[in-house]
Amino acid sequence: MAEAVPLFYGDRAETENASDFIKVFNRSMLFLNPLSTDTQKIQVLANYLGTGSPAECWYDDLTATQRASWDDVVKAFNDRWPTTKSATLTSEEYQTELLDHKMAEEDVGAIKTVGHQKVWAHVKWAEEAMELARLAKIESGPTLIWQVKKQLPKAVRKLLDEEYTTWKKFMDDVKDLSTSKLKQECEEIEERKRKDEEQDSRLMQKLEATKRATTADITAQLQRLTIGQVAVSRTSPRASPSTTHPNTRFTLQQTPRRNTPYNQPTEEVKEIVRKGLEQVPHHPNDEEGQRKYMAQLTAWIMKHGDSAWVTEYTPYPLKPGTAMVCSGECFRCGMHGHRSRDCPTAEGDASRLSRNETVWRVLCNRTLGPFNRNIAYSIRLVVIDDQGNETGSL
User: Highest taxon of the source (predicted)?
Assistant: First the structure.
C-alpha cells in the first residue's frame, strides 16, 4: 500500500517539514509508478500542494527552465524551502542530560511500553542512558559512570558491581538485573525503613513525654515562686525530714564518701566551669525568662538524657527567681539567709531545687568559690504560718 502524502502548504507551520515532504512524495511515486517520467512527476506534484497556499503560488511561478527536469524542480523547491539545520548539542550538554536522566524509585520492577512492546523500566532506562553516552562520546570509558550509578535507586545499586570501566558493561549489567531480586531488595528496604520510622516515632514519644513532665514540674514550681521570695507552707502533716526521710542528708548524686583528700581544681577545670556558666545563662523570673529556662531544660535533656550526671562538662540550667550562683546561696533551695543543712524546705517540696541543679551549684562553688557574694541581691525564703500569714524571713 502506498504511503499517504500529506498536502504541502509551505507556510512554515511547525507541523510541516519541507524536506520530509519531498522524500515522502518521491517514495510514493516510486511505489505507484516506478517508471514515471520527470514530466509526470512534475505534473502530479501540483496535486499535493495546498490550494491558495504559498507552495501553490511557488509552483505556478516556476519558469520553463525550472520545469525542465525533476531535479530542477527539486532544486527550486529546496532553494525556496531550504533544509533547517538541526541543533547539535556538545558533548558537555549531552553529559548534563545523562546526569539528569534518573531512574525513579517507583519504576523499580515496573513495566513500560516502548512503541508496541512492553519492557522492564530499568531496561528502558539503560538503553536511553547508553544512547546519551554515545552522543556524548564517552561510551568507551568510565566517565560519569560512578555519578550516574550513585543516583540509581538503592535496590538497583546493591545488585551491581562496585566499579565499571565502560558504559556498555555498566548498561548490560543493569539490563540483565533479575526483576525478582529487584523486588525482593525493594521489600527489604521498605521493611528496614518502616522499622526505622517506628523507632524514631518511639524516641519522639519518649522525648515528648519527658518534655511534658519537665514542663509540668516547672509550672508547679512557678506557682510557688516569686522573684523576691518563696512561700514555704508548714501546714502539711508531713513529718520532719529526719524522721520520714532518714537518708535525706545532702550527698552529690549518691556517690559514696571518699576518704581521699580534696584536690584543688586546676585552672583548666575552672575555665571549663566559667564557660559552662556562660553557655547556660541565669534568666530573670518573668514570662520571657521562664520560656528560655524551659528551652534550656529541654535542650539539656535531649542532649544528655534525663538520667545523666552533672559534671563540669554538662552545665545545668539555673531556676529563675533563685539566687545568683556562687553567692553563698543554699544549695537546697537556691536562696540566701541560711546554710544548706539548715534549709527549711522538706524533701519533695516544690521550693526545692532539682538534684541536678543542686549538684551544679555545689560544683561551681567548690571550683570557683563564692565570687558573687558581694554583688548578688539577697533573695530569701518567707515562711507562711497555718493562717497564711508571713512570720518572718529565714
Answer: Eukaryota
